[in-house]
Amino acid sequence: MLSQEFLEERCLRVGRAQAASLGAACAGVGLKFVFPQFAPAKAVELRLEPFFRDPKFLFVAISSQDLQPIQAPNAAAERVRWAEHFLGHEVANFVRSVV
Hints:
single chain; 3 helices; elongated
């Protein structure tokens, strides 16, 4: 199944055909999840959309914002490891569970 078909059929009620009614052809649709309080001091946005260059693949992006400043370089590395773990485990399990 192509990623676009996966998103339209499994996750959305609106597909490219319905979105085209806004006045122009639609290249694709995707999902964006916003978690403003993912943890006490963390905000997270997760995007799932087709990889337009090769629609067999799914494009996954995460944006994480920690609301507390850091003072040590190892704290920044820990935040990067958290995002990597979240994408590689939590998001991957979520995508597998909706297939």
